[in-house]
Design brief:
The chain has 308 residues and is an alpha/beta fold. 23% of the residues lie in helices and 25% in strands. It has a 7-stranded mixed beta sheet with strand order 6-5-4-3-2-1-16. It has a 7-stranded mixed beta sheet with strand order 7-8-9-12-13-14-15, with helices on one face. Strands 10-11 form a two-stranded antiparallel sheet. A hairpin with a 7-residue loop joins β8 and β9. The structure holds zinc ion (ZN) (2 copies). The site of one zinc ion has 7 residues, from loops.
Length: 308
């Protein structure tokens, strides 16, 4: 089983307050490091928690509100100054490309590493086939959210990987190594006495791929329950408590109660709550509100790492 975990770098909405930073998360999946959103101060948070920006190969930006991308210019520049040469893949709304180019032009700075920009458009009705990246190990798709401006969440799914045969099984049935490839392709194994054993009986059960969903800024979207069904961890913004429902609706945000309801309906493993309003110094009332609906609710506090 390879490593699949998320470290929270920022959990505040809008402005930094109470020592909370705007949104950013670091996902480590096998040998790949991914940044989800890059609020102001993200590069400092990366250093604070002992992570290395040089290891990043993907950055995904959900939308162009400042609290989700204003840390990007600094991070990209520092990687340049630190001598990065590895390519970096940036997935973001199209307009970000202009903003970045404008900055690099007026500052007369040129990146010495390839920055591959992939525009991510917003298709609100499209709930399937939204794959952005597919590698041997994982797949990243966009999740169409509904916010005051175009906004996408991201779903990171592990791939099932090849089925294995245990050493014990090999000994029990005296399977030679050169028969392994065939069995893994589904061929039966014929023992010395002619007994045929189907591949199903020899192979270990298929691993259920793990998944992580990142729903940054959005109003409550109960229709996402199909897409989010059984994800291991759902991060969902919970900007307000339910007593501020009308405020949440006006600003296209979600309450703790609503996020917990979605987590329950989608039967996810855990709910991570974040993007907290400056209204809440103490976050426990939000946590209590969510736990009443969905007990496996957790605050996405900065510096915490959750295993997926
Ligand atoms: Zn935000
Ligand atoms: Zn926003």
């Amino acid at each position: 089983l390879f490593k699949f975990e998320v470290t929270i770098l920022g959990c505040s909405s809008a402005t930094p307050i109470f020592n909370r930073h705007p949104t950013s998360q670091w996902v480590h999946i096998n040998h790949t490091h991914i940044l989800l959103d890059c609020g102001e101060g993200t590069q400092m948070q990366i250093m604070r928690y002992g992570l290395k920006a040089s290891k990043l190969s993907y950055i995904f930006i959900s939308h162009l509100h400042g609290d989700h991308y204003l840390g990007l210019m600094g991070l990209l520049s520092s990687m340049n100054l630190n001598g990065r040469t590895d390519p970096l893949n940036l997935f973001a709304p199209l307009e970000l490309e202009d903003i970045l180019q404008q900055h690099f032009r007026v500052s007369e700075s040129e990146l010495k590493y390839p920055l591959h920009f992939f525009p991510v458009n917003h298709e609100p009705e499209n709930l399937t086939d939204n794959v952005l990246v597919e590698t041997q190990d994982f797949r990243v798709s966009k999740i169409p959210l509904k916010h005051s401006i175009a906004c996408n969440g991201f779903l990171i799914e592990e791939k099932p990987g090849p089925q294995k045969i245990s050493k014990e099984t090999m000994d029990t049935y005296s399977i030679p190594y050169d028969a392994l490839a065939g069995i893994k392709k589904g061929q039966s194994f014929i023992q010395a006495d002619g007994t045929e054993i189907s591949a199903d009986r020899l192979l270990e059960p298929k691993r259920i791929p793990r998944s992580y969903a990142f729903c940054s800024d959005t109003c409550y979207l109960p229709e996402l329950k199909g897409l989010l069904n059984h994800v291991n961890i759902l991060y969902h913004e919970t900007t307000f408590g339910h007593s501020f429902l009308s405020r949440a609706e006006q600003t296209y945000h979600t309450t703790a109660f609503q996020a917990a309801q979605l987590a329950k309906d989608a039967e996810v493993g855990k709910l991570l709550m974040g993007h907290f309003s400056a209204r809440y110094k103490d976050l426990n009332p939000l946590l209590e509100e969510a736990k009443e609906i969905f007990p496996e609710s957790y605050l996405a506090l900065e510096g915490q790492t959750f295993s997926i």
